[in-house]
Write a structure and sequence with these properties.
This protein has 212 residues and is mainly alpha-helical. The protein is 39% helix and 8% strand. The radius of gyration is 21 Å and the shape is elongated.
């Protein structure tokens, strides 16, 4: 199950995020920001994650004078404000940040074209399959290094090796942009993909640039 989702109260899904330590006093000392999604369907709940991430970010930056008030949970209907719910108190120090869900939030906020989003999504899924998990917070520079080397050394679907330019400008670009957005939203401490480079050899010029 996505680390953003919490299932309780007879199967109803809730969205949850860890509140930064510096912000907890504004929220009555609470460790997590939890909102009812008003659905028992996991697919419907996952589709609401991007809007929830944006609402969470606004809550961290906005007025939390009434954050400690308990109100009855209501179904989530973007962009209507969330209703409060009781938060558990056993959050890890570095909570998991699902890479694919983070990309969906990024793509939704930045209004990335469907074709580009589909291409980038497939590349991020390839990274998830390579490292064996979907936690962006657990990615390391070594993970990205090894993935880059695998992309360059193993044939793609067409049976041909990928060019360094393709790996640099498509695969790594998709990861860098997604992680950079997550850092911007304070979901991640840093962007490990920014340290990974791909050297693209210059093309050999076979004739003069201009005819004489």
């Amino acid at each position: 199950m996505s680390a953003y989702l919490l299932k309780r109260d007879g199967g109803t899904y809730y969205f949850r995020r860890s509140i930064p330590l510096a912000q907890r006093q504004r929220f009555g000392g609470r460790r997590e920001w939890v909102r009812s999604l008003g659905t028992k369907d996991r697919k419907d709940a996952k589709r609401l994650i991007p809007a929830c991430l944006i609402a969470f970010d606004k809550a961290m930056d906005g007025d939390a004078s009434n954050a400690s008030e308990e109100r009855r949970a209501k179904p989530f209907k973007p962009p209507v404000a969330f209703a409060e719910a009781t938060e558990p108190h056993n959050t890890p120090k570095r909570p998991a940040v699902p890479l694919l869900a983070t990309f969906e939030a990024y793509a939704a906020e930045q209004r990335i074209k469907p074709g580009t989003a589909a291409e980038w999504r497939s590349m991020l899924k390839a990274l998830v399959a390579f490292v064996g998990h979907d936690d962006a917070n657990a990615l390391t520079v070594s993970d990205i290094d090894e993935w880059r080397d695998a992309l360059l050394s193993k044939p793609g679907r067409g049976g041909r090796l990928r060019s360094p330019g393709t790996v640099k400008d498509k695969y790594l670009c998709a990861v860098r942009a997604t992680l950079a957005w997550a850092v911007e939203k304070r979901l991640l401490p840093d962007n490990v993909a920014s340290l990974v480079k791909v050297r693209v050899p210059k093309k050999v010029q076979l004739r003069e640039r201009d005819f004489t």
